[in-house]
Recover the amino acids of this structure.
């Protein structure tokens, strides 16, 4: 897996970051897309996003990552935010149990608005603050297993597992897409944008249409 | 500063020891934790926290909303904490009611209004956004909720805020329309945004040129988006909302378009108190004294600027905010053609008339209600009097009955006594008559008399 050029990609995957306010969604995004971390990053209002193109095997995948405000009252405006998302990182702060306790509600929110086939990873962020941990790893892992979610603990501050988390989600999405492409004879199960796998890099129109699973 | 009220509370610890402030707070603060007057009480970050917390105390039903922080921060850069707080209250209650409330319905509604206005201002941008199915809330939420504090360069923020305080929400709409027109308003620009993501990215990275103070103010001034237009579109979008999404969950108060409207409303509600009832000065926001007068009315004490205030600039009180004051967006004759000016003037007069009508209507309504209330009160009073009479009558009746019974008893007693006396009289025929005899007789007669009634 490596950085591809911004210009060349075969797939665009839209991935959303969700979770309570203050769990570190924005810093996970900035760490993954720009390798930056800010101790006093400002609160997200509305929607932010960033992209990074990664190579999965021979395919260049442009990850389009959307980040939104976690505060309850912003959820009213997020149905537009979920549209077309094929992956989600449901983030909680492992030093604040409350942010883990509401994970189920977030999951419901996600399935209400996104495609049922969306790839979801539960992410316990701030693993560098192990002395303040309030959510045991095993508890979160069990929850993820029972709900069919991927699971990882990350630290946007010291970069632990951040790459791995996004990479795992993207690979999972890619696997699903590839499988469906093999099975399908262009049924309604898969709709591809113009950024198709067979497209010659750098040619054709660069459209950021997302692939819906 | 992050997120929820809970995290707002957590932030106290991160702000270091503020025992000094707390000590003072115990002694003489008001219920929102302010000391009164215009002291600067330490770090701006602490003040920011206090303002936001004070708002949750002031409006516990609304609570804290993240976007209030940038707004309060801009205010705090120009005035002491307490005044900044009241200014924030004014923005949340009068200028942008419902913006920070649960569900963010007011923002969503304004998004729809904005999109409708965009159709006139820039059909190309409108069509492009509609084709790519980009909801207005995806890009305008931060613009509107923070009044561009996070979007524009600082000089432009100040100018926009000046205009906003004077003329209200239409300025926000206008700025947003100008930004979109210059970001997606031409064929080449639209062509470079093939996908939704490219468009969104473009809207996140607006061209610097269109955000420049002079250019932006010029454009905003010349955009014919009036209060009347916004109100009309508001009604249309509200109707649409109700048809498609049902009733709004939260009903904000009526939006007031600028300081004059607010001032007039206040004057209607309470008669003027004389020269001391000045409006709160936003002197720091005034970067160009000759061009624009920025000011927000505020319920609390008249503005007194601390000499140690961090905000430089001339002191301009908003006392002069008066209908005749040239508006910062309408004052530039060189920019606006005279026809335009006349039209705007007409528009303004029309609005004034409409407002007057509205006011008279409200006045009549109020009078009617007052009359009704008085009528009701009279009725109540009458009812009460009637009941009182009834009660008195009954009481009298009862008293009479008692009296009668008593007298009856007395009479019987008397009779018995009389019999006894007769006996005794018989016994001692020369003795003086008992003194009570004389008193008894009339009451007995009375009792007999009463019995006829």
């Amino acid at each position: 897996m490596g950085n591809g050029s911004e210009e060349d990609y075969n797939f665009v995957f839209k991935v959303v970051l969700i979770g309570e306010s203050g769990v570190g969604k924005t810093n996970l995004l900035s760490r993954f897309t720009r390798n930056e971390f800010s101790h006093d990053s400002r609160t997200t209002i509305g929607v932010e996003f960033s992209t990074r193109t990664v190579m999965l095997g021979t395919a260049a995948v442009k990850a389009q990552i959307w980040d939104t405000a976690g505060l309850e009252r912003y959820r009213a405006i997020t149905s537009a935010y979920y549209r077309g998302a094929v992956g989600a990182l449901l983030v909680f702060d492992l030093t604040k149990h409350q942010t883990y306790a509401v994970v189920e509600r977030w999951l419901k929110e996600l399935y209400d608005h996104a495609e049922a086939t969306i790839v979801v990873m539960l992410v316990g962020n701030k693993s560098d603050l192990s002395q303040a941990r309030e959510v045991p790893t095993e508890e979160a892992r069990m929850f993820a297993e029972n709900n069919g979610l991927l699971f990882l603990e990350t630290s946007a501050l010291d970069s632990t597992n951040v790459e791995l988390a996004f990479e795992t989600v993207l690979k999972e999405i890619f696997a699903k897409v590839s499988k469906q492409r093999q099975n399908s004879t262009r049924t309604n199960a898969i709709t591809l944008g113009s950024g198709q796998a067979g497209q010659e890099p750098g040619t054709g129109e660069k459209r950021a249409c997302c692939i819906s699973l | 500063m992050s997120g929820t009220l809970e995290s707002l509370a957590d932030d106290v610890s991160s702000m270091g020891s503020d025992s000094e402030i707390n000590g003072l707070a115990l002694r003489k603060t008001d219920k929102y934790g302010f000391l009164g007057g215009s002291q600067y009480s330490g770090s701006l970050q602490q003040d920011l926290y206090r303002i936001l917390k004070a708002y949750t105390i002031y409006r516990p039903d609304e609570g804290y909303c993240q976007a209030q922080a940038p707004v309060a921060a801009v205010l705090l850069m120009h005035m002491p904490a307490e005044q900044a707080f009241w200014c924030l209250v004014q923005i949340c209650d009068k200028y942008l009611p419902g913006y920070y409330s649960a569900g963010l319905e007011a923002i969503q509604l304004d998004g729809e209004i904005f999109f409708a206005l965009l159709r006139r201002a820039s059909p190309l941008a409108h069509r492009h956004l509609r084709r790519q199915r980009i909801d207005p809330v995806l890009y305008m939420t931060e613009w509107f909720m923070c009044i561009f504090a996070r979007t524009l360069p600082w000089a432009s923020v100040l100018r926009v805020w000046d205009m906003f305080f004077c003329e209200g929400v239409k300025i926000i709409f206008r700025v947003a329309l100008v930004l979109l027109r210059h970001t997606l308003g031409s064929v080449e620009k639209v062509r470079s945004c093939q996908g939704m993501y490219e468009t969104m990215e473009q809207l996140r990275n607006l061209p610097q040129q269109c955000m420049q103070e002079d250019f932006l103010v010029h454009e905003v001034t010349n955009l014919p988006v009036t209060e009347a237009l916004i109100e009309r579109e508001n009604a249309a979008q509200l109707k649409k909302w109700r048809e498609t999404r049902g009733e709004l969950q939260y009903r904000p108060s009526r939006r007031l378009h600028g300081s004059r409207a607010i001032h007039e409303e206040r004057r209607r509600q309470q008669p003027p108190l004389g020269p001391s009832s000045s409006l709160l000065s936003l002197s720091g926001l005034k970067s160009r004294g000759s061009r624009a007068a920025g000011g927000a009315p505020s319920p609390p004490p008249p503005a007194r600027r601390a000499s140690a205030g961090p905000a430089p600039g001339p002191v301009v009180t908003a006392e002069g905010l008066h209908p005749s004051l040239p508006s910062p967006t309408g004052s530039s004759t060189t920019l606006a053609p005279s026809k335009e000016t006349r039209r705007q003037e007409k528009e303004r007069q029309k609005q004034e008339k409409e407002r007057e009508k509205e006011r008279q209507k409200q006045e009549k309504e109020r009078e009617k209600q007052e009359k009704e209330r008085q009528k009701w009160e009279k009725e109540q009073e009458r009812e009460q009097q009637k009941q009182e009479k009834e009660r008195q009558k009954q009481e009298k009746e009862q008293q009479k009955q008692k009296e009668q019974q008593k007298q009856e008893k007395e009479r019987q007693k008397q009779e018995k006594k009389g019999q006894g006396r007769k006996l005794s009289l018989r016994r001692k025929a020369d003795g003086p008559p008992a003194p009570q005899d004389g008193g008894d007789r009339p009451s007995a007669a009375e009792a007999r008399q009463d019995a006829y009634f």
Q: What stands out?
A: Strands of chain A lie at 11-18, 47-56, 59-68, 87-93, 119-125, 150-153.
